[in-house]
Design brief:
This protein is α+β, with helices and mostly antiparallel strands. It has seven helices and 21 strands. The chain folds into three domains: 169 residues, no CATH class; 53 residues, no CATH class; 140 residues, Nuclear Transport Factor 2, Chain: A (Roll). It has a six-stranded mixed sheet with strand order 6-7-3-2-9-10. The protein has a five-stranded antiparallel sheet with strand order 1-11-8-4-5, with no helix packed on it. Strands 18-19-20-21 form a four-stranded antiparallel sheet. Helix 3 packs antiparallel against helix 4.
Length: 415
């Protein structure tokens, strides 16, 4: 039996899905909508792998100089000793205001770098300081308690009401906020099943039957005798030589290797049931978006060809590529951060003349555009009808018709 679960989701505010965050108090939570291009004063990005949890703190220059007795613009000119002091004061603040507990054990931060970014166009020409922090580990933990409790700005009467944060682990990126009322979150390791390779999605063949030559001779004798009997010419004295001849022929034929044979009414393939067909489709569909992790167009096409028939490659490439372009960010290409299959309805023809089935589905694609200092997350929702067909003993997407699409934060989008 095939595994059933392919896509990933989100856990926030105590609701269980694949990506695990629990808000301990206050109003901290998910923020999936992508608003206007306004870089926040402070933003955080966590990235987890088997070796470390890495934290990137992006701070606007005036806020940085409120937190520390420093002049941000001279950071690039600091000598080794002064730069070490800059790292140490950042480490002290992170340890005090943003403590981390990994599997219940407090882990001290290590500030590995501080960089001053001056008036980049991606940051609306605002100056930023980027603080890079690392927390060492030997394997991916089961849970991480996160905290951010620094909301001061250059104006004491206008503290930050929230700090945007993102958390990246394997295939998923989540965005949420820390607030003064909800400064703590707990991440729990999700159970992410492995995504099958397209080459593993094989059409199940029905093997031909092995028939022994001796059995064929016996069958032939039975046919002959039946014909004789039906014609009313049955005579034991005349028919026994036929039986002896069949027996004599069967002895040497029994030494001959059996012949492979398929009844004309039996198909050469076995159609999957609805559950297995849905598994095959969702795996192919997810691998389409994984193809866009490659950098060059030729590599993307090569990866797509593993899941899509040759005649459909250009259409799929163009449709997915257009969906990843974010117009309000200057036509930048976003990176796929998650694909969630919301619903899928499988139709299997009966009888099936070829290995083929149809799927009507609705799904969401989460993409992000990353700038120095901040990230933008956008989620699109689609409806489409697909045909999946067996080709060269492998399942591939054979046709697609997108029937609806829109932003999930757009009230005019698909419902």
């Amino acid at each position: 039996m095939m595994p059933r679960r392919i896509s990933q989701g989100l856990l926030l505010g105590g609701a269980v899905t694949a990506m695990g965050f629990t808000v301990e108090s206050g109003s901290g939570g998910a923020a999936e909508s992508a608003g206007a291009h306004v870089p926040p004063p402070v933003s955080l990005h966590y990235e987890l792998d088997a070796e470390a949890l890495r934290l990137t703190v992006n701070v606007q220059e005036p806020v940085y100089e409120t937190w520390f007795p420093s002049v941000a613009s001279i950071i690039p000119e600091l000598n080794e000793e002064a730069y070490a002091r800059e790292l140490e004061q950042a480490r002290t603040l992170i340890a005090d205001r943003a403590p981390i507990r990994i599997d219940g054990v407090a882990v001290l931060p290590r500030v590995v770098g501080i960089e001053f970014l001056e008036q980049l166009v991606e940051n609306d020409y605002l100056n930023y300081v980027v603080i890079e922090v690392a927390y060492g580990m030997k394997s991916v933990p089961k849970s991480i308690q996160l905290q951010w409790d620094e909301f001061r700005t250059e104006d004491p009467s206008w503290p930050l009401t929230e700090v945007d944060a993102t958390f990246e682990y394997e295939v998923d990126l989540q965005i949420f906020q820390f607030t003064p009322e909800g400064p703590r979150l707990e991440w729990q390791k999700p159970d992410i099943p492995p995504v099958p390779k397209p080459s593993d999605l094989q059409v199940k063949a029905v093997p031909e039957q092995q028939v022994a030559w001796a059995s064929l001779s016996a069958i032939l004798l039975g046919v002959v005798l039946s014909v004789v009997a039906l014609r009313g010419a049955w005579n034991p004295r005349r028919s026994w030589p036929l039986a002896v001849a069949a027996f004599v022929a069967a002895v040497p034929l029994s030494m001959v290797p059996p012949v492979l044979w398929r009844p004309p009414w039996q198909a050469a393939f076995e159609m999957p049931d609805e559950s297995d067909a849905r598994y095959v489709f969702e795996a192919l569909h997810l691998n389409v978006y994984r193809a866009f992790d490659y950098e060059t167009e030729s590599d993307v096409y090569d990866a797509l060809a593993q899941s899509v028939e040759a005649g459909l490659l250009d259409q799929v490439y163009d449709e997915v590529y257009r969906g990843l372009i974010i117009k309000e960010e200057g036509d930048l290409l976003s990176r796929v951060r998650g694909v969630e299959m919301i619903e899928s309805q499988v139709t299997i023809p009966d009888p099936a003349d070829e290995p083929r089935f149809d799927v009507a589905c609705r799904w969401r694609v989460k993409g992000s555009v990353e700038h120095w200092g901040h990230r933008h997350l956008r989620t699109n929702e689609y409806r489409a009808r697909y045909t999946v067909r067996g080709e060269d003993s492998r399942w591939r997407l054979a046709s697609v018709q997108v029937t609806d699409l829109g932003r999930v934060d757009d009230p005019e989008g698909p419902q």
